[in-house]
Specification:
- With about 375 residues, the protein is α/β, with parallel strands linked by helices.
- Among the domains are: about 55-120, no CATH class; about 235-364.
- Helix content is about 30%, strand content about 10%.
- The protein contains 6 helices and 11 strands.
- It has helices spanning about 5-75, 75-85, 90-95, 100-105, 110-120, 350-355, and strands at about 120-130, 135, 145-150, 160-165, 170-175, 195-200, 220-225, 245-250, 275, 300, 325.
- The strands form 4 sheets. The protein has a 5-stranded mixed sheet, with no helix packed on it. Strands 2-4 form a two-stranded antiparallel sheet.
- It is globular, with a radius of gyration of 37 Å.
- The relative contact order is 0.06.
Length: about 375
């Protein structure tokens, strides 16, 4: 008799087989679902990554485009005409009301104002002292390309910053490009210039004016009425030893960001008039030697000075022999403030007036 599987065994075998197939089918389905889930997740991540990347590229593209607009404007013929042939208030009106011009320049009124305040050239006119020669401006090597110098009415650029002996020059014109952000030592040690006149000054990106006119011993006249000093932080030694300067009107100066005014007018022996009525000294910490040896000054009104943050007034008015009227009514001097020699060499009459005027000031 042939051997064979019993009916119950065959049935059980089929059930086991079916069970395994079902299990495998479920596992395959779950595997496929997991795979699809991962693919969907990866697809979303890739999409988000691409969106972020595209967003950054778009942002960078806009910034580059904006930058290119500003960089290209200085070479725009139409804008050059506007800059050099029209006054500022008229320029703004032209840009504001001429939509065709805005379109041509790719520039809105607000963008124009921003450009004007940060990219306009500064033009300065100097008058030399007769028969004097030597350096008339200090230019660092890295900034050399941003300074353009012309003698008299010539359109030919001069590639030096000094006058030669016996050179007959009546006027020096200097144009400074927007890349220059510091006027530190700009005219320092100049001994051949009689007057300095800032013809155009619309930029607000100048931050440092320390030592700007340091030892300009022949300077007798300086027109600074259109100076923009809103972002300047350092004015130390600015007019130190300008010994020929007689009058100085700084009533248009915005000094609210200045922290250092030490030695600012020290050694201005001939100075008889000094207008500082607009000075905001809220952030100033150093006023040492600020007016030292200003022997020609008779009156000085500092009633608006805020000295709350000043840590040193050392030798501030030392050897101001001629000073007879000094208004320090708003001065507040802390115990830790250094006031050594603050009024050294000043008259007894002036010191007695100050004692009565402000009891906060202790004079030994």
């Amino acid at each position: 008799m042939k051997s064979g599987k019993r009916p119950n065994q065959a049935k059980s075998s089929n059930q086991t087989k079916s069970s395994n197939q079902t299990k495998n089918s479920k596992q395959t389905k779950n595997s496929n679902q997991t795979k699809n889930s991962n693919q969907t997740k990866n697809s979303k991540q890739t999409k988000n990554s691409n969106q972020t990347k595209n967003s950054k590229q778009t942002k960078n593209s806009k910034q580059t485009k904006s930058k290119n607009v500003f960089d290209n404007l200085k070479n725009n013929f139409v804008l050059k005409i506007i800059f050099y042939l029209t006054k500022e208030n008229k320029i703004l009106k032209i840009i504001n009301y001429n939509k065709a011009l805005q379109k041509r320049l790719n520039l809105s009124l607000n963008n124009y104002k921003e450009y004007y305040l940060n990219h306009s050239p500064i033009e300065i006119e100097l008058k030399p002292v007769k028969d004097k020669y030597g350096k008339f401006i200090t230019i660092s090597e890295e900034d050399k390309e941003y300074y353009h110098i012309y003698f008299d009415d010539s359109n030919e650029e001069i590639k030096r910053n000094s006058l030669k002996q016996n050179e007959k020059v009546k006027k020096i014109k200097i144009i400074i490009d927007y890349q220059v952000e510091s006027f530190k030592y700009l005219f320092a040690y100049t001994e051949c210039i009689n007057s300095i006149f800032f013809k155009t000054f619309t930029r607000n990106n100048i931050t440092n004016m320390s030592n700007m006119f340091y030892k300009c011993s022949t300077l007798t006249e300086s027109n600074l009425s259109n100076f923009i000093t809103v972002n300047v932080t350092d004015m130390s030694y600015m007019f130190t030893e300008c010994s020929s300067l007689k009058k100085l009107n700084l009533s248009r100066f915005d000094t609210h960001n200045v922290t250092n005014m030490k030695w600012m007018f020290q050694g201005c022996h001939s100075l008889t008039e000094l207008n500082l009525t607009s000075f905001n000294t809220n952030n100033v910490t150093d006023m040492s030697n600020m007016f030292a040896q200003c022997r020609g000054l008779i009156k000085l009104n500092l009633s608006k000075f805020n000295t709350n943050n000043v840590t040193t007034m050392k030798y501030m008015f030392t050897f101001c022999f001629g000073l007879s009227e000094l208004n320090l009514s708003n001065f507040k001097i802390k115990k830790e403030t250094d006031v050594e020699g603050m009024f050294l060499g000043c008259s007894d009459q002036l010191i007695n007036k100050i004692k009565k005027q402000n009891k906060n000031i202790k004079i030994e």
